[in-house]
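QA checklist item 7 of 12: single-chain prediction sanity check.
[x] sequence parsed
[x] length recorded as 216
[x] structure emitted
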Amino acid sequence: MEQSPARGRPVQFDREAVVERAMVEFWRHGFDGTSLATLESATGVDRSTLYNSFGGKRGLHRAAAQRYVDVLAREMFAPLVAGTATDMADVLRFLDALDSVTRSEDFPLGCFIVNDLDSPSREHDATERYFTALDAALRAAFERAGLAPDRVEQRTRVLTAVAVGVNATAPHDRATALALVASARTLVADWQHDAPSIPPSTFPSTSPTTSPATPS
């Protein structure tokens, strides 16, 4: 259990840099696998200051989780929302980004949020933000492609499962995670050839006396 240390003079440090470094440690080891000693070493800030500034390990984990979702929303999800493609091009770019992150040696494998899903110490607010943002981003891309609501729903669920599956698998088996991305990319490329789904009510009405057009 964390002890509340006596408060002394405020210590000056770069709060954003501390949260960023802590984010990497929690991402790599999870809440339970990240000790205060590890956080002190990674951030260069002693535990007394971490407690006074963040409320201890729990508060720093909360700040790191929110920071992770902020970065993910900006780098991965925003291009889906702000894209201009009326086909699957923006979704394919999202999968390409997922592939690049999974291959990268610059970040821990997997996803901060997904890695902590089974932990009782997970940050519920950040987890909800993650899934809400991912869902909204995928829906935006599929709706822009002119898909009917049922297909938007179906394909959003499929790619959400892909994203979670890739991130859950990557820390244990990067090759399998990359193969899953490749399979998803093939699937989405096939969706590329689908014509937009038009609800039946939008088809022009045809009277009984109207003859169908003769193909040329």
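[x] summary fact logged: Confidence is low (pLDDT under 50) at residues 1-6, 197-216.
[ ] second reviewer sign-off
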